[in-house]
Specification:
Elements lengths: L1 H5 L1 H25 L9 E2 L2 H9 L7 E2 L13 H35 L2
Antiparallel strand pairs: 1-2
């Protein structure tokens, strides 16, 4: 029923926030395992995942098999920290868009009194 009232916009924002949180957790796990021999980093291509929200066959997390170090670990700390910052910025933007959507609805409701 809420989708009828609000449309898919808020639902899509909610899914995007969920996927952003999921990616952030993956990146933090990568960073936590930077010194674990043989650990392979996980990530997701966020744009493909969001496009996948429109398609029920969405993409799964990607595990990279290449290795940067002799111990088989392929986590690059600098790249992980950069990706964490980028994901945090994306989450903040999505949160702001969600807040603005609800503010617009609140304004419309108040004007309808």
């Amino acid at each position: 029923m809420l989708n009828d009232v609000f449309g898919g916009h808020l639902n899509n924002l909610g899914k995007a926030l969920d996927k952003t949180s999921e990616r952030q957790a993956m990146l933090m796990k990568n960073l936590a395992n930077v010194n674990v021999p043989g650990y392979k980093r996980e990530d997701m291509d966020f744009s493909i995942v969001l496009d996948g929200e429109m398609d029920p066959n969405g993409s799964a997390p990607v595990k990279s098999n290449s290795s940067l170090r002799l111990d088989g670990n392929n986590v690059d700390m600098e790249a992980e920290v950069y990706a964490i910052g980028e994901t945090e910025l994306r989450y903040q933007t999505l949160t702001e868009l969600t807040t603005r959507s609800f503010s617009g609805l609140k304004s419309a409701i108040r004007e309808g009194k």
